[in-house]
Amino acid sequence: MDPDRTANRHPRLPVWLLIAAALVMAAGLVWLEQQWPMRAGAPGASPLLPVPAGPAGNFPAPLSHAGVETLKLVAAGLIGALISAVHRRRPGDKPISRSLAQAQILLCVAGALMMIIIGNSLARALGIAGGATIIRFRTPVEDPKDSTVLFILLGLGMACGLGELGVAGLGAAFLCLCLVLLDWIVDRKPRTMMLEMVSASPEFPADYVNRLLAAYQVRFEPREVNQHGQKATVRYYCTLDPDTPLQRLSEQLTDVSAYGLKSVTWETQKKE
């Protein structure tokens, strides 16, 4: 198996295409809010969303209140997905994990859902606030940039829940642009990690490992080689770009059809 091909097995959308999608989404949400105001108390706002007339001039039944709220949740999900996709390509000092990317989308939807449930009821707001105190998140977010993005996503989701789709769309597009611009302005330092690999046989596939790491533009230095019966343990000192997909790289290192290894472990080097 060619490592150069496996490195590009799962191509990702370029950032410029995601920015274009965010701008199109923002324009669509602004147009939608102008056509059918959904914010409570807005001039012309209605709990029912009218549907344009068909070819014959007959007006079908308008969407129900549940349809309007579903539209708000869909808008929040799209905003969270786009921002998460841009953030994964322009992360902070540490790469974005799969669970954090999913949490960003769910947090945006949760913000919209909370505002839909609360409405104008103070009792509901107090009930949700009391219920939130029961939930304890024990996974800390170490990167300040990730924490800030989560906070903004919650606000954008709440804007969707309030019916401010135009504000939410413009805020999402602006946040995507900020993530890209900040990555260009601020220099990012490469990561240093210790890679430990255990082969399933006494023969270590050094040629395949070296070519695969080179395909991902990982600079490496062999540090330790240990032989233990029917397996070999090798440790590499690696310097790699923060955007390097470690999970995908580990899956290809352990691919059985290409001299796969028994186990692969990445260990972050602590700063001295």
Give the helix/strand layout.
Blueprint (H helix, E strand, L loop, with lengths): L2 H5 L7 H21 L29 H25 L8 H21 L3 H11 L11 H18 L3 H21 L5 E9 L6 H10 L3 E10 L2 E10 L5 H8 L7 E8 L4
Antiparallel strand pairs: 1-3, 1-4, 2-3
Helix pairs in contact: 2-3, 2-7, 3-4, 3-6, 3-7, 4-6, 6-7
The percentage helix is 40-55%
> Main beta sheet, described?
4 strands, antiparallel
- Derived structural class: alpha+beta
Please report the number of helical segments: 9
Count every beta strand, where a strand is a DSSP E run of 2 or more residues.
4
Write up what this structure looks like.
With 272 residues, the protein is of the alpha+beta class. The chain has 2 domains: 6-185, no CATH class; 189-268, Alpha-Beta Plaits, CATH 3.30.70.260. Helix content is 51%, strand content 14%. It has 9 helices and 4 strands. It has a 4-stranded antiparallel β-sheet with strand order 2-3-1-4, with helices on one face. Helix 3 runs antiparallel to helix 4. The longest helix has 25 residues, at 65-89. The chain is elongated, with a radius of gyration of 24 Å. The model is unreliable at 6-10, 43-51 and 56-62 (pLDDT under 50).
Summarize the entry for a quick read:
The chain contains nine helices and four strands, in the order αααααααβαββαβ. With 272 residues, the protein is α+β, with helices and mostly antiparallel strands.
